[in-house]
Write a structure and sequence with these properties.
single chain, about 200 residues, Rossmann fold, two-stranded parallel sheet, 8 strands, globular
């Protein structure tokens, strides 16, 4: 396996750990809120786990298109579509597991609401602000909210997934830059260009 894929072992492990920690089973339905690097890797991880339908909710057109290319069954722009209503209609009541990879109030509220009774909302993102939450959202459906943090002893499995192509790491690499360009073409570009996903720093450039 090349060094470029090797650079993706760590973030891919975050996604694989989240899926393995969740109650997702073969043939289940899944929703992913946020299609940044972790969201797109989550998409591939749930696909590798054998889900029947994958819903991706993302405001960026570029990232929705990338999600389609990577195997999403449905992509939803929450700005112009009620994502929860759409998911509930298509799944007859909600997905088995929803994953939050965005870390904002809107995705938390929608994610909890998009799971079926007894389903699970798995929080994978790291949050900058607290969220408001009505416990009745899970009391009345007996759904679960759980968290997933980093990974634990997963690198060998993740290396095999990337090396075999079961997870396409190259698909989330959008740029390669020199170390001298890390501010302008790295950090600053990521804040303003939603088409960017993983930017690799090549020490030989």
């Amino acid at each position: 396996m090349g060094l470029e894929l090797g650079a993706l072992v760590e973030p891919t492990a975050v996604a694989v750990h989240a899926v393995r920690q969740s109650q997702l089973k073969l043939g289940d339905t899944a929703a992913i809120f946020g299609a940044g690097p972790i969201g797109l890797l989550l998409l591939q991880a749930v696909k590798a786990a054998g889900v029947s339908e994958i819903f991706v909710v993302e405001v960026s057109e570029e990232r929705r298109q990338k999600a389609l290319e990577l195997g999403a069954t449905h992509v939803i722009n929450p700005v112009d579509t009620d994502a929860v209503a759409f998911i509930r209609e298509k799944t007859n009541g909600g997905v088995n597991v929803a994953y939050d990879a965005a870390g904002v109030q809107a995705t938390f509220t929608s994610g909890v609401s998009a799971v079926r009774p007894g389903g699970e909302f798995k929080v994978v993102s790291v949050w900058e602000k607290p969220v408001e939450f009505n416990p009745n959202m899970i009391v009345m459906t007996e759904a679960k909210i759980s968290g997933s943090y980093a990974y634990n002893r997963l690198f060998p499995e993740v290396i095999r997934l990337l090396a075999s192509g079961a997870i396409d790491g190259q698909a989330v690499i959008t740029s390669k830059i020199a170390l001298d360009d890390i501010v302008e073409k790295g950090f600053e570009l990521l804040t303003k260009d939603r088409s960017q996903c993983k930017i690799l720093v090549d020490m030989n450039l």
